[in-house]
Design a protein that fits this description.
The complex is a heterodimer of chains A (112) and B (118). With 112 residues, chain A is mostly beta strands. In chain A, 0% of the residues lie in helices and 53% in strands. Chain B is 0% helix and 51% strand. Chain B is built from no helices and eleven strands. Chain B has strands at 4-7, 10-13, 19-25, 32-38, 45-51, 57-58, 67-73, 76-81, 90-97, 107-109, 113-117. In chain B, the strands form two sheets. In chain B, strands 2, 4, 5, 6, 9, 10 and 11 form a seven-stranded mixed beta sheet that branches. A four-stranded antiparallel beta sheet of chain B has the order 1-3-8-7, with no helix packed on it. In chain B, a hairpin with a 5-residue loop joins β5 (45-51) and β6. Chain B starts with a strand and ends with a strand. Classes of the chains: A mainly beta (112), B mainly beta (118).
Chain lengths: 112, 118
């Protein structure tokens, strides 16, 4: 099935640094979601975006819904060790029975 | 707290065994639930959409006779991996959304079931 392209594939950063990752698609979505997955667990919803151009924050996390509706980015400010994990974007179109299309994932490692 | 519960979290069994995985929505009714499979270091791939009171909808390439889905109530969907073989070993995850099907309400995921077939 289709997957969304996420970049970078992996990141190694120091605690306190800011992080930026993005997600692109060849097709349009009318909802973008960002999830974080810890090892051996299911994804946890971080941010949901519903409108093109929308910028939404959740604590140290900020995400934007691209104006073309084909991309989204996620920023994490002042990273901490518990930010380690895999971040997935997901696109959703309400006309497709609420099925999510997931990105390829960005693996984040934070060093002290 | 968790809104979707999955059980068991880990299964190890012999080749040829059938394994049932349960997915429950804890504080809402879900007419639709979704089953995903995730191989190591890969993303989640949708296997099927589970519809309460009707047949599941399977994604292309997923064998419906191999992966039996039953959505008998508004809070429970089950996935049965029949006659499991080592290649079926994977991390299986379910999800459910609070909104009606075709809505844009985000899905919440269970904690997954790691299936290991010997």
């Amino acid at each position: 099935g289709q997957q969304l392209n996420q970049s970078p594939q992996s990141m190694f950063i120091q605690e306190g640094e800011d992080v930026s990752m993005n997600c692109t698609s060849s097709s349009i979505f009318n909802t973008w979601l960002w999830y974080k997955q810890d090892p051996g667990e299911g994804p946890v919803l971080l941010i949901a975006l519903y409108k093109a151009g929308e910028l939404t924050s959740n604590g140290r996390l900020t995400a934007q819904f691209g104006i073309t509706r084909k991309d989204s980015f996620l920023n994490i400010s002042a990273s901490i060790p518990s930010d380690v994990g895999i971040y997935f974007c997901a696109g959703l179109n309400t006309g497709t029975a609420s099925k999510l299309t997931f990105g390829t994932g960005t693996r984040l490692q934070v060093t002290l | 707290g968790a809104v979707v519960s999955q059980h068991p979290s880990w299964v190890i069994c012999k080749s040829g065994t059938s394994v049932k995985i349960e997915c429950r929505s804890l504080d809402f009714q879900a007419t639709t639930m979704f089953w995903y499979r995730q191989f190591p270091k890969q993303s989640l791939m949708l296997m099927a959409t589970s519809n309460e009171g009707s047949k599941a909808t399977y994604e292309q390439g997923v064998e419906k006779d191999k992966f039996l889905i039953n959505h008998a109530s508004l809070t429970l969907s089950t996935l049965t991996v029949t006659s499991a073989h080592p290649e079926d070993s994977s991390f299986y995850i379910c999800s459910a959304g609070r909104g009606a099907i075709f809505s844009n309400q985000p899905q919440h995921f269970g904690d997954g079931t790691r299936l290991s077939i010997l």
